[in-house]
Amino acid sequence: MPARKTITGRSGGPRARFAQELKKERERAKVTLRRLSREVGWNETMLNRMENGIMLGGPDVVEDLDTYYKTGDKLLILWELAVTDKNRFKRQYRPYMELEEKAVALWHYGATTPPGLLQTEGFARAALIAGGYEGEELERQIQARLERQRALFDPENPVPFRSIMSEAVLRNPLADLVEWRKQLEFLLEVLDLPGVSIQVLPFGVGRHGLVNTNMMFLQMVDGTIVAYAENDAQGELIEDSSRVEAFNRAYDALRDLAYSPAETRRFIMRLLEELPCDPST
User: Fold this and answer.
1) For residue 216, what is the enclosing H or E element?
2) What is the pLDDT of residues 107-140, one digit of tens each?
3) What share of residues in the chain are helix, strand, coil (percent, to 5)?
4) Rg of the Cα trace of the chain?
5) What is the reported pLDDT for 162?
6) Fewer CB within 10 Å: C terminus or N terminus of the chain?
7) Domain 94-274 top-level CATH class
8) Helix, strand or coil for residue 227?
9) Angle between helices 33-40 and 59-69 (to 10 degrees)
10) Is 268 helix (H, G, I), strand (E, B) or coil?
11) What are the residue ranges spanned by the domains of the chain?
12) Residue 235 DSSP code
């Protein structure tokens, strides 16, 4: 049976409808993005990404837009529908994503790739294409991945996040070196965010308890910790407390062996210096 069309025929889902309404209200008000940014006090780039469906923003910016456009709480209602739309994630990832959205702290170990929370659009696109995504599904997954970063950039209540990455992650660049440079520069940018810590685990550490595993730990509001382990073939949500505790002990051991955040910054800067000059500059 073909998918049922929406009433308007314009919206592909709650996220698209929210983006369409943002643009519609701005055009109705006859203001440019630059003027809107100046008058509501929110970043122009972020407002542009919201109108293009790349990110949803937070409730505070949406409330300010409702006030500015005199739309009651229409935009906030559409935002809530978009935020809670689990169809933006593939079915097998939804249980994890629901937990991530509720987590009060996150920590990560990456053996093969930067975490989705720290990926640029260019890196996410390359990774998803390599995973077989294409067309509309590719764009939907890129948008979903980038939207998750809102938790780190929230100026009022950022979620504490620590990432330890194997040196191999940063020694394995994208084929597009311009996009790889942007990825490294983005890591330096997020190192300045409150609550974010990035550490590189040097090659010399050798084998350890999390080798060849990409793992995320999520602390929930009641203090419980859930883990998610992923390799190239599959992912597993781990809620058994004894297994989570064992993985967490292995993680703590790596944290003590990794470069400090300051040393990691210097390491990334050296990698940037080693890259060929950006031909666009």
Assistant:
1) strand 214-219
2) 999 998 899 899 999 999 999 998 888 887 888 7
3) 55, 10, 35
4) 20
5) 96
6) N
7) alpha beta
8) strand
9) 100
10) helix
11) 14-83, 94-274
12) E
Q: Rounded to an integer, what distance in angstroms lies between the CA atom of residue 159 and that of residue 84? A: 18
Residue 155 amino acid letter: P
**Domain 14-83 matches domain 94-274 at the CATH topology level:** no
Mean pLDDT of the chain: 85
C-alpha dist (Å) from residue 81 to 1, 7, 94, 97, 107: 25, 16, 16, 16, 28
Residue 8 tokens read as 């308007």
> Chain centroid to CA 122: how far?
13
Amino acid at 112: T
Q: CA dist 207 to 122, 203, 211, 250, Å? A: 31, 9, 6, 11
Question: How do residues 191-238 score in pLDDT, each as one tens digit?
Answer: 998 889 999 999 988 888 888 888 999 998 888 899 998 865 567 888
Q: What is the pLDDT of residue 6?
A: 35
Q: Side chain identity at 247, as an amino acid letter?
A: F
Token pair belonging to 40: 């509501």
Q: Which two tokens stand for residue 187?
A: 């890591």
Collapsed DSSP state (helix, strand, coil) of residue 180: helix
Pick the CATH number of 14-83 from 2.10.260, 1.10.150, 1.10.260, 3.40.50: 1.10.260
Cβ-based neighbours of 73, under 8 Å, separated by 6 or more:
63, 66
Tokens 């809102």 correspond to what residue?
150
